[in-house]
Design goal:
Blueprint lengths: L9 E4 L5 H7 L9 H10 L4 E8 L2 E11 L4 E9 L8 H16 L5 E3 L9 H4 L20 H13 L12 H8 L2 H7 L4 E4 L2 E4 L4 H17 L5 E5 L5 H6 L11 H9 L4 E8 L2 E11 L4 E9 L8 H16 L5 E6 L5 H4 L3 E13 L4 H13 L8 E2 L2 H10 L10 E4 L2 E4 L2 H9 L3 E5 L36 E5 L3 E2 L6 E9 L3 H18 L5 E8 L4 H7 L11 E8 L1
Parallel strand pairs: 4-5, 11-12, 20-21
Antiparallel strand pairs: 1-2, 2-3, 3-4, 6-7, 8-9, 9-10, 10-11, 12-22, 13-21, 13-22, 14-17, 15-16, 17-18, 18-20, 19-20
Helix pairs in contact: 13-16
GO molecular function: acyltransferase activity, transferring groups other than amino-acyl groups
Organism: Xenopus tropicalis
Keywords: Acyltransferase, Transferase
Length: 567
């Protein structure tokens, strides 16, 4: 292991189960045009290719693969990437060394390594080890579908201006072989005998024909199954199985949508859409009207793994926006939450409203009691106490009417279970309909107040215009929200439980976690296990990570970003 590398860094063969983490780590690479995301599952089936992952604390933080070419005498390294939060810590060098060691041990016939780099990536240390074989100019343009015909005519017009088209001949495999058996042709067209196809550097060894021609059916398939036949239609109950079929592995199996799908269909403030190709679901997205109808929250976006990287996400999102413009012209903002490292194209449209740390742990059924005891001991060992109080619907309303929201909600945004809302009255009613458990602590002057137990269920919230009940809750303090655990696709009775923390007091945060987890376990089905997602201010990350030490981590994302844009 290299000196800068994390001490727990492990190198393992890549598997299909690692795909979602690989995709998450690859966000934004090549400006969102990363072909490896599309090819990952295909590469796994290639007997000439070896793919490796670097993992830290069980989470994918790096990737590199090599492919044997030139009849097994050369290895082409490809796809190197490191998770943004792990860059500069030696992960790339550790991956490269591991691949080299693997080559030496398992493929002693390999005498050369070949790869390509963009000019900005070339460092002196690289050129000290490698020979520069060739460089080529790269020109890239984007042609929207609606402009395709127009651009073709433009290019044809420009060709006519320089003497017209020259005849082109499509070569058969045998003609390609004869062409490259001519050394004069090879020298004239391929400097140093090197051919680069789709950024893949090959010599003109006979076997390269096999590689280039096996790629053709994939390209043809992409062309024939393009976005021309994708339809966006309202989602129905009958689409449930189709949406679930494209959702495997999302959030590492802790996906909320299987449990929420039918509930969402019944919500009059929500619209859901599916993208279909050849009659099969290949994409999903939805929006929910919030803030009294002036904001739409986009939720649940997903695309079938075999269709990613082909523009479907952009098409279904644009369809949602068009539906908003047509059906709800009063909507002026779109808001969403997502994990860390959004692509640059997204950030050019959205503004970052706030970000919070995400800490997630899994508590198996046979460890529930021991975990509660552990957390209780840690809370009791803290200096001072911070009683946690449950809030009635009337107390919630009074608290919001008498507090300054920025004290706990930067820019007035409250996120509950990844749903970003303003503190508008209508949103408080929405949260009560979701069965949210509101808990509060007065961090300036703690006092004792009865906790909410399983027998004390929140009542529906009535929002009288002049409701001013007497309340012990003062502005500020510390607040936590949760909804009952929901079943997720991991099986074995696994449930998801999100706890959203508001405030910066570490003692209060730990007390609230203990209280919320205890309440969740009261209603957890017999034999159930739970994955807890804790959302807290970044300043609390270190304290809460230590507080959860000894509980198995469950890695999905490290940050929760709230993004917003005007429309």
């Amino acid at each position: 292991m290299l000196e800068n590398s994390p001490p727990d860094l492990q190198m393992v063969p890549a598997t299909a189960q690692d795909y979602d983490e690989f995709v998450s780590m690859s966000a934004g690479i090549h400006g969102g045009l990363d072909s490896r995301v599309f090819r990952y599952l295909l590469w796994l089936k290639d007997p000439l290719r070896k793919m490796f992952l670097a993992k830290s604390e069980g989470k994918v933080v790096g990737f590199l693969c090599f492919m044997l070419v030139d009849d097994g005498t050369t290895a082409v390294a490809d796809g190197l990437r490191v998770a943004p939060w792990m860059r500069g810590r030696g992960v790339a060098k550790a991956l490269q060394k591991f691949c080299l060691d693997n080559l030496h041990s398992n493929h002693p016939t390999v005498t050369k390594i070949r790869f390509f780099l963009g000019p900005k990536d070339i460092e002196p240390a690289v050129l000290n080890k490698y020979h520069l074989l060739n460089s080529k100019a790269l020109i890239s343009v984007v042609i929207p579908y609606e402009q395709m015909e127009e651009k073709i005519k433009l290019l044809e017009h420009r060709l006519e201006g320089v003497g017209g088209r020259r005849p082109l001949v499509a070569l058969s495999p045998s003609e390609v072989l004869r062409l490259f058996e001519d050394p004069c042709t090879t020298e004239r067209l391929l400097p140093k005998g090197l051919l680069i196809q789709s950024w893949f550097p090959l010599s003109t060894h006979r076997r390269f024909l096999h590689l280039t021609h096996t790629a053709v059916p994939q390209i043809v398939a992409m062309s024939e199954n393009s976005l021309l036949d994708v339809q966006i239609v309202p989602a129905t109950a009958g689409d449930y199985d189709g949406v679930m079929s494209i959702s495997g592995g999302i959030y590492n199996g802790a996906d909320y949508l299987p449990c929420r799908y039918h509930e969402w269909l019944r919500d009059p403030q929500r619209r859901m859409f599916v993208a279909k190709s050849e009659g099969k679901v290949v994409g999903f997205d939805s929006y929910l009207l919030v803030d009294g109808g002036v904001t739409a929250v986009v939720q649940g976006l997903r695309v079938a793994p075999w269709m990613r990287g082909r523009g479907i996400a952009g098409v279904i999102q644009q369809f949602c926006f068009d539906a908003l413009h047509y059906e709800h012209p009063e909507v002026s903002k779109v808001r969403l939450t997502r994990g860390e490292d959004p692509p640059a194209a997204m950030m050019s449209k959205y503004r970052l409203m706030h970000s919070k740390a995400i800490i997630s742990v899994v508590i198996p059924n046979d460890q529930l009691e021991a975990t509660i005891k552990l957390l209780k001991q840690r809370v009791e060992s803290e200096d001072g106490t911070c009683p946690v109080h449950s809030m009635s619907p009337e107390e919630v309303l009074s608290w919001f009417e008498n507090s300054t929201s920025d004290e706990l909600f930067p820019k007035g945004i409250l996120v509950q279970d990844w749903l970003p809302l303003s503190t508008h009255r209508s949103n408080l009613q929405l949260l009560q309909q979701r069965g949210v458990l509101w808990c509060y602590s007065n961090t300036s002057k703690p006092h004792t107040h009865k906790s909410l137990h399983a027998s004390q269920k929140p009542t529906s919230l009535s929002l009288p215009h002049n409701s001013t009940p007497t309340s012990p809750f003062i502005p500020g303090g510390f607040l936590s929200l949760s909804t009952p655990p929901i079943s997720v696709p991991l099986g074995d009775g696994m449930h998801r439980y999100d706890i959203d923390l508001f405030g910066t007091d570490p003692v209060a945060a730990k007390s609230h976690i203990l209280h919320q987890v205890t309440e969740a376990l009261r209603v957890l089905p017999t034999g159930g296990s739970v994955i807890c997602f804790l959302s807290a201010e970044e300043t609390l990350r270190a304290e809460l990570t230590r507080f959860c030490q000894g509980i198995a981590p469950f890695f999905v994302v490290r940050e929760q970003l709230v993004l917003e844009m005007d429309i």
